[in-house]
Amino acid sequence: MRIRTGFVSNSSSSAFIVTNTTDEELTLVDFVAENPQLIRQYCIEYDWHDPAEYCQTALLLSAEQENEPIPPGSHKMVFGDEDQTMIGQVFDYILRAGGESERFSWRFIEGRR
Asked: Which is the most buried residue in 48, 75, 89, 113, by most CB within 10 A?
């Protein structure tokens, strides 16, 4: 049996392909603004979170701090709860089912524990 010494993390991160289906550059804020159902779904599935704290407004504020550009086409994006951000925590789990909206589609490609 191997025994790990030193810091052991319980955190995770997940990689996704996020596709901007338009011909214009969009951002992470655009993605969050267009998909308010994601934070609602997260609060239903992980019901120990306070919906007053885990709301669309708070998720948008978290996205503004990261606000990565999402150019047209498919791009790998990584979200993780080790980032200590709401966007990392929520998207690490809730994007795994995949989905699409008016200007975006997304799918899970890998998880790291």
From this structure: 89
Helix (H) or strand (E) segment spanning residue 61: helix 56-66
Tell me how crowded residue 15 is: count the other CB atoms within 10 A of its CB: 16
Q: What is the pTM of this model?
A: 0.85
Is residue 86 within 8 A of residue 54, CB to CB? The reply is yes
Domain boundaries, the chain: 26-112
State pLDDT tens for residues 86-96. Answer: 999 999 999 99
CA distance 23 to 27: 13
